[in-house]
Input
Amino acid sequence: MIKVLDRIQAGEVLLSDGAMGTELQKRGLPTGACPEEFNVTHAEIVQSIYRDYYRAGSDIIETNTFGGTRSRLAIHGKENEVYRFNRRGAELAREVCPPGRFVAGSMGPTGEILEPLGTLSVAKAYDYFAEQAEALAEGGVDIIYVETMMAIEEAEIAVKAVKEKTGLPVVGSMTFNLTDGGVRTSMGVDAATMVGRLTAVGADLLGANCGTGVEVVLAAIEEMQPLSPLPFLAQPNAGIPQMTDHLIVYPETPQSFEQKIEQVLQFRIGILGGCCGTGPEHIIRLRTLLNKHHPVG
Amino acid sequence: MMNEKLKLLAICIERGKVDSQTSYPPDMQGQSGASELTRELLDEDVDPNDILAKALMVGMQRIGDKFGNGQAFIPDLLIAAKAMYAAMAHLKPYFDSGAARHKGTIILGTVAGDLHDIGKNLVRMVMEGDGWKVIDLGTNVSAEKFVDSVRSNPGSMVGLSALLTTTMLNMGPITQKVKELNAETKVFVGGAPLSQQFCDKIGADGYFPDPQSLVRHLNTKPN
Ligand code: B1M
Output
């Protein structure tokens, strides 16, 4: 079987999935509940989302493990479930993954701030990520996305932990904002810093995900491309969330999302997809778009 | 003179100048920081409420606005928060009433998903100062924790704080669960993105833009 990285390195643009969190909420995850726990308590719901994304045309779907580090699970009192929740999240995906498609293990930030500004030590952060990466690898993922990172040190530690503990291909992806001085993460990291430091620890792809919409992801990749020979991951949000009563809604419809994302394809994209506010409908659109750009066969 | 000092204090908060010992920010090395200036203002008999409103909140607002515009980043907010805490430590005794008997108990916390605790801690300081017992559950507090605390402290009120438009949505379910346990339990809410309208929508008993108005309300309402 051809490996995921081989296909990307051969120039193919692989289609990833859309959001997990918002889909889980639509299908019954109560506000404030632990999404990763659904991997063991509501396997059928998690699997229905995986399946819908594969059906919509995703080549790669992400496991429901974004908040699966010990520190994030501790918010729900589930810090001792790291292994079970992550491994099961990966196995559920493996079970429904059609031949020739892939499973990506999702790893998000710890939610803590590293020393000296915060209290998290480098050694502890490494352990958090190593523990999660090993469980995902055992569950059978093909690649790991370290995503939505804002602090460069934390992203570095995560990429390093994945590489050293699993040897799997890894994406290092951060969340940027548009500022007058170019793209920056909330912690102040610019594109050059990110490219330099994540490449040095062995990231196989660099990426921009989440954020305020397609525009910022486009700007980030435009800044990164001249600085690196690596392929990129682009997974923007469906715009800036707006509040209506008790609901958070995302303004980009599948149509407007597709139109904007077409511009992203002028860059060296290896993985394309969506983040918060995107669903299977958006992915169907992107499939059509990709087929147009890169006809199959 | 006093006004100059208040202005300087606002700058110390905005720039994260904690005290004269700290080397950050480099261009303010050796100068007095938030800690010393607050101490001096108090010694000059400046009203602690004025220090709060005219210096500390002003500096916080400025760095918050810069952050909102992409001119400052989270590390800047964290250092500003440190300076704010250094100043608040001096204010605390001035808000302390020393009353031996409590007027009542409030269970206070920043709601699930939210880590902002400066506002909540101010509410605590002002309420304790006014003679209320405060059970502080900290930040990122789940509905379950609030409910557990209400169960083990019958007759208490609940105070919820949230600073994010996303986490304020968690106030609804928390209020609901507290009321399910005991419909009589009063739930009060506050935090920058809230409004009376939002409070009404989620079925809470009152929205207060600052701790002073909360305390005023509690003191006037028949218990
Ligand atoms: C029970 O009854 C009551 C009654 C009254 C009550 C009450 C309860 N609770 C509060 N009150 C009232 O009384 C207090 C005194 O008058 C008042 O409390 P406040 O809390 O409003 O006021 C405080 C005394 C002073 N104000 C503050 O302490 C907040 C200041 C600002 C600058 C701020 C800070 C410092 C921080 N932050 Co954050 N932060 C901002 C803030 C911008 C701003 N100008 O407000 C805001 C709130 N942050 C924001 C964001 C986006 C974030 N922050 C984040 C993180 C942080 C720090 C940790 C770095 C730090 C907090 C440190 C700490 N220990 O608390 C992140 C979220 C983390 C999380 N999960 O909670 C993060 C998401 C950033 C990121 N990308 O990671 C923005 C929210 C945007 C939105 N619409 O939701 C923000 C408005 C900044 C901005 N301009 O974009 C009243 O509201």
About this structure: The pocket of CO-5-methoxybenzimidazolylcobamide is lined by residues A 186; B 60-61, 63-64, 67-68, 74, 77-78, 80-81, 113-120, 122-123, 159-161, 163-165, 188-193, 208, 210-211, 214 (CB under 6 Å). Chain A has a mean pLDDT of 94. Chain A is about 40% helix and 15% strand.
